[in-house]
Specification:
By secondary structure, chain A is mostly helical. Chain A has helices at 3-30, 39-44, 48-70, 73-80, 82-93, 101-118, 134-138. By secondary structure, chain B is mainly α. The longest helix of chain B is centred in the first third of the chain and has 30 residues, at 2-31. The two termini of chain B are 23 Å apart. The chains are: A mainly alpha, B mainly alpha.
């Protein structure tokens, strides 16, 4: 893991959380969409907040794919779940939503989980004889 | 009946998005470090390479299916049940699937992380 890779993970977190927040803000202005008015969904994406949200979510997807190109899925998913924490702060301070005590406990658990996984290696190495017991190795091609 | 349909679509979300994540992760490992590839061959090459990798396309298909299952689940149940249930179950399912299909070393540390995050997501979304 180097600085560039941590920046990509940070990108996954920030683009994901801010994209979701913008979508939420935009869709609240667009209003509820009933199933028989599905056409409204098409026009929703040209709403400025929603469009900006979609743009950020595309940046999220690009960073997510980049992270998966050099790190395990079981590393990337917990490591970037710190985004839920960021989203809660955005919800409280920018969208002025009420963040309950249960939510703060949940946020604490997520932060603890992120701390756990971040200490470990990012990628499982697969050398061919890694798991093989010694006697199998001695019978090997080498 | 409404609850049964909701839980069936939650199961569909979990299975589809886990399948999608595993396929996307596998596709990206096949391609290798995107940052290095971009430096050597340029951004257009990276994009072309990604969108022509079959597992990436199958992964995207699975994610689309997951999205429609989510819409379906939301039409039967409240978002406050559907979102936390599907997100936290997906965390656990991903840890199991990554171990079986991607042969990732899911050690104690990663298990605990997955469980903490799954529990945390469930509480946050309530």
């Amino acid at each position: 893991m180097n600085l560039r890779k941590y920046l990509v993970l940070l990108g996954v977190v920030i683009f994901g959380a801010s994209g979701d927040a913008l979508l939420s803000r935009g869709m609240r202005q667009v209003g509820e969409i009933q199933l028989h008015h599905w056409q409204k969904l098409i026009f929703a994406v040209v709403h400025p907040w929603v469009a900006l949200g979609v743009l950020l979510l595309m940046a999220f997807f690009a960073s997510y794919m980049t992270a998966l190109s050099w790190a395990d899925l079981t590393y990337v998913l917990p490591a970037t779940s710190i985004g839920y924490v960021l989203l809660a702060f955005i919800a409280k301070f920018l969208l002025h939503e009420n963040v309950s005590a249960t939510r703060w406990v949940g946020i604490g658990l997520i932060a603890a989980g992120v701390g756990f996984v971040a200490q470990g290696p990012a990628l499982t190495h697969h050398p061919h004889h890694e798991e093989a017991p010694p006697q199998v190795l001695s019978r090997g091609k080498a | 009946m409404r609850d049964l349909y909701a839980w069936l679509s939650i199961a569909a979300i979990v299975i589809a998005s886990t399948t999608g994540d595993v396929l996307l992760s596998h596709a990206m490992k096949q391609i290798g470090d995107l940052g290095e590839l971009r430096r050597r061959r340029g951004l257009l090459h990276v994009i072309a390479r990604v969108v022509t990798t079959p597992n990436f396309l199958f992964g995207l298909l699975a994610m689309t299916f997951a999205f429609y299952s989510l819409l379906m689940a939301l039409s039967w149940q409240d978002v406050s049940l559907v979102a936390p249930a599907s997100a936290s179950l997906t965390f656990i399912a991903n840890a199991v699937a990554a171990r079986i299909f991607l042969h990732e070393r899911v050690d104690h540390r990663r298990w605990i992380a997955a469980l903490l995050v799954a529990g945390g997501v469930a509480l946050v979304a309530i």
